[in-house]
Design brief:
The longest helix has 14 residues. The chain has 5 helices and 10 strands. The radius of gyration is 16 Å and the shape is globular.
Length: 186
């Protein structure tokens, strides 16, 4: 069965964005080790699942990035070429290429995706969507990239107690520390 991975940057105090969706605290000067790790994490993926709110910025960003010679790299191409499934109960048709829209029960839809033939699935959020996936315990591996910044308040991805098992940690030169977890029950 396919695995669902969450790749998310968070602050030291556990937020994925500020209270008004601010992302100005993120570390963008990734070192080569972090870039290589993320490429390895993404390589076995053939499906991206995201919530509608994130899709509205994520998909156009990467589509534009591949037209810019400075950002047209392997990762940008992977983000554009990989089929995407956008979860929404308000959007019924995808305005983007290579994208399908699904609604309904998240756990049921993720189970269907996992049962299909293929490689791993990855999600990048946003905060509400990731929270729902975590609460439904459908994520197999949580890759939390902790930025060396505390922002004081914002949007968390954990709604309540979530028992996790630490699989690995790794510090990178740019100050980001990876915490790779699985649900304790898995």
């Amino acid at each position: 069965m396919r695995k669902l991975k969450l790749q998310m940057q968070i602050s030291v105090d556990g937020f994925v964005c500020g209270p008004n969706s601010e992302m100005d605290w993120l570390t963008w000067n990734w070192d080569d080790g972090l870039k290589e790790y993320v490429m390895g994490l993404t390589a076995p993926v053939d499906t991206i699942v995201i919530g509608r709110k994130l899709a509205e910025g994520f998909i156009p960003h990467w589509t534009k990035a591949i037209t810019n010679p400075e950002t047209n790299d392997i990762f940008a191409r992977k983000m554009v070429d990989t089929p995407k499934v956008v979860f929404s109960n308000t959007l019924h048709q995808a305005p983007w290429d290579n994208t399908t829209v699904v609604g309904g029960d998240i756990a049921e839809q993720i189970s269907k995706l996992k049962s299909l033939p293929g490689r791993d699935i990855i999600t990048y959020g946003g905060a509400g969507f990731s929270s729902n996936l975590i609460e439904a315990e459908v994520i197999d591996d949580l890759f939390l990239f902790v930025n060396p910044t505390a922002i004081g308040k914002g949007l968390p991805i954990f709604k309540g107690r979530t028992n996790l098992r630490l699989v690995e940690t790794q510090a990178f030169e740019c100050g980001i520390v990876l915490h790779h977890y699985q649900h304790q029950t898995k």
